[in-house]
Amino acid sequence: MALAKTHDLVNLTALPLFLYLIPKEFYLPFAAGYVFGTFFLSPDIDLPGSRPSKRWSVLKCIWTPYQTLSRHRGISHLPLIGSFLRLIYLICALVFLYFTLLGVVATLDRGLGYVLSSFNPFELLHSFFTSGASLYVVAGIVAADVVHVIFDMLWSIFRRVI
């Protein structure tokens, strides 16, 4: 397995090639998804001690169930399936954290709980996923995964040959 620094460098080096293939008005959403996919939603998030896992800092605990259920280089390393699985997992985990926080805050301070309950995470998700840019954000995440997995495969072949 290649080092995380190497994965990061290879992924960032490949980004301009992808940008060449997409419309200019979607550079920013694609690049944002690609960078987020490279540094935070990498297939290596299934390893508790990995760099992508550590980058979540105090929120890395949300990945513990995922890491427990997923073996390394398992479903997480299937580019399209793994990308969508991690993205759906992340959305569910953040919605769960929001409602947990809402419950705790509402119990401690009704006024603040009322203010916090005025935010609807499902409306935010709906507006994001119905925008044209969301397709390019998700495409960026998937592209970052594809580069990661191809590099893993090439690295494994290289290690066997040496």
UniProtKB/TrEMBL annotation:
InterPro entries reported for this sequence: DUF2227_metal-bd
Annotated TM spans: 26-45, 87-108, 128-151
Keywords: Membrane, Transmembrane, Transmembrane helix
Top-level taxonomic group: Bacteria
Protein name, UniProt field: Metal-binding protein
Organism: Aquifex aeolicus
